[in-house]
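pls design
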């Protein structure tokens, strides 16, 4: 046998000997791939519930959920005139590193309370990242106000609405209706002085002068909005004013609480700027007085308020069929 044939035989033997080794390598590679896939899936399946658990612990046991609910509800009580919330209406749901919070907002019109807005909010950790409001109101209320489009107007300012036209609308309503009205005064008054002048209607909310409402601009030049507090006793479970001996002091306590969460409070409210520190500083040094209130009651009783010497502007709010049973 010549050398050439010997070389061919050796090559054939080499190929036959390598075949089992190649199969073993292929099987090992395939096995490694499956192990990697299984390991990755196992880790993923462990991470997801772990993250959900951490999210739940962050909000539930870290009291973040309660804090965020308090910031949301208390912001609306002092920035949204004549509104209230119900504790049992708060719905929470958790997802990865976030919490959804939905609730109903109510408004007193006449002698009854009606649902007026539905809020769907989402917080990513502490930050409000989503807010959807479904309104059931018949009127559009001020949002992102300028210096002049307030519904409650300081004596030094004028409203963009026409008071005479609003008075005509009120006069044209049937007597069998109850109304909500926004009343602005010619001077600053204590809330007690206002209530004494309006015994036949409910004064539901008072806008409080905080040193900036004569221009509606803060010291930094930010456009600010009215803030105030509910006047009537409020027995709603979620209300921070429930059982309060002094609504003025509760109002100031709320502002002091919100100042640490002002970014979130501003995002929750319909207003761009609250500038709470400046306004708190003023309120601590001066008596609280109001330049405008929200009232509700029978159409005829609200109409009679226009003759009061303190009255300057009137803006008509919501209207409902008669429900006044007093």
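designed seq:
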């Amino acid at each position: 046998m010549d050398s050439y044939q010997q070389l061919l035989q050796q090559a054939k033997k080499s190929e036959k000997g390598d075949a089992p080794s190649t199969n073993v390598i292929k099987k090992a590679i395939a096995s490694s791939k499956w192990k990697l896939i299984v390991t990755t899936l196992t880790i993923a399946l462990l991470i997801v519930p772990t993250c959900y658990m951490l999210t739940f612990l962050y909000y539930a046991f870290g009291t973040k959920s309660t804090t965020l609910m308090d910031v949301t509800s208390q912001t609306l009580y002092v920035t949204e005139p004549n509104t209230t919330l119900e504790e049992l209406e708060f719905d929470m749901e958790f997802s990865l590193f976030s919490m959804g919070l939905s609730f109903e907002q109510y408004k007193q019109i006449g002698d009854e309370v009606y649902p007026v807005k539905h809020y769907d909010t989402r917080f990513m950790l502490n930050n409000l990242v989503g807010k959807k409001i479904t309104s059931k109101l018949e009127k559009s209320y001020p949002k992102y106000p300028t210096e002049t489009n307030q519904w409650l107007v300081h004596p030094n300012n004028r409203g963009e609405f026409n008071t005479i036209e609003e008075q005509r609308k009120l006069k044209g309503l049937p007597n069998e209706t109850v109304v909500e009205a926004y009343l602005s005064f010619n001077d600053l008054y204590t809330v007690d002085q206002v209530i004494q002048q309006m015994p036949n209607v409910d004064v539901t909310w008072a806008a409080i002068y905080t040193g900036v409402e004569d221009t509606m601009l803060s010291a930094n030049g930010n456009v600010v909005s009215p803030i105030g507090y509910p006047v009537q006793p409020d027995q709603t479970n979620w209300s921070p004013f429930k059982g309060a001996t002094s609504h003025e002091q509760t109002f100031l306590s709320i502002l002091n609480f919100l100042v640490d969460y002002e970014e979130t409070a501003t995002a929750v409210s319909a207003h761009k700027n609250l500038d709470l520190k400046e306004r708190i500083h003023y309120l601590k040094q001066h008596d609280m007085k109001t330049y405008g209130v929200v009232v509700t009651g029978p159409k005829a009783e609200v109409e009679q308020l226009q003759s009061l010497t303190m009255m300057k502007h009137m803006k008509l709010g919501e209207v409902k069929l008669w429900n006044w049973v007093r």
